[in-house]
Amino acid sequence: MLKKHFMWFVALLFILSACNHHNTNQDQNDGAKKEAKDSKTVTPKYREPLTGIGTDSKPINRAVAVMINNHPLARPQSGIASADVVYEVLAEGDITRFLAIFQSEQPKTIGPVRSAREYFIKLAKGYHTLYIAHGYSPEAKKMLMNGYIDQLNGIQYDGTLFYRSKARKAPHNSYITYNNILKGAKEKGYSMVTPPSSLPFASEKEIKQITGQPVEKISIHYSKSNDFNAEYRFDSKLQKLKRYSGGKQTIDANNDQPVLIDNLFIVAAKHRLIDDYGRRAIDLTSGGEAYLIQKGKIRKVEWENINGRILPYENGEPVKLVPGKTWINIVENLNTVTFE
Fold first, then answer.
1. Contact between 140 and 74 (Cβ < 8 Å)
2. DSSP category for residue 114
3. Distances (CA, A) of 248 to 73, 226, 230, 235, 243
4. Where is the signal peptide (predicted)?
5. In this predicted structure, what is the pLDDT of residue 21?
6. Is residue 155 included in any domain, yes or no?
7. Is residue 159 part of a domain?
8. What is the CATH number of the domain that holds 323?
């Protein structure tokens, strides 16, 4: 009798063990399926062409490039934090202007809008943008009137597509809404459903392999006056750069959000004066020395103009960007740049 009970006990243990083994395998299988499902969920189907940020919707928007005023009386600017790519370049005197390129985001209001210059138009052309400005130099006017680029200008649309803010004085008070940009494009017959080709972006593995000297602050000296200089400070928690002018942080007047930058590219290009007014010609084709700042590290690289875009190169090979926002500061030489 005791032997019979023992045999039943052994059989019961075998059954329980088999069930437990089955349940463990089932749990492991369910866990693997869930992990695969979760992984599939967070993997984006598409990426924005100028930021590399993942999106579930296929990007179809044409890029828009807007000339934005950077005079102290024009700050804080509207829409600046939403730009995918921003060029900062000297205009007349010691004052820079921004060419802000929007594709992944469409801010409600953009401005103050300023006048066109030849080199800004060429930079905008590199992204197949609709170019927005208010006014132009003689050289820029010839390019725009000859159809070099699709464009809307406040000279023709002041008070209609463009409006004047009562809170500021001219020439620091011209603004345009994104809805009016689309309205103007429709009136002119411009297609707005062709996105630009993608910039080269690094993978997570490649980002971890970024090399360079650790840096906390980068200063760019455009002028003897600090009001017209640019400063960038690395936020180690955000792993992004914050921008400052005249000691004040650059924020967006639309929402009080700070400008946050993932790639800072500082390129040296030859400048020369072309008239008594102080207008410049800038060599944007020859390439040259540059600094690239990513993830709190700075390294010296080169720049090349690839189909109208100023891009980083190292030892003849293209350098990939960190997904996110990119600012490109064009300076006369790298001696104007200090960092610590």
1. no
2. -
3. 13, 10, 10, 16, 8
4. 1-22
5. 45
6. yes
7. yes
8. 3.50.90.10
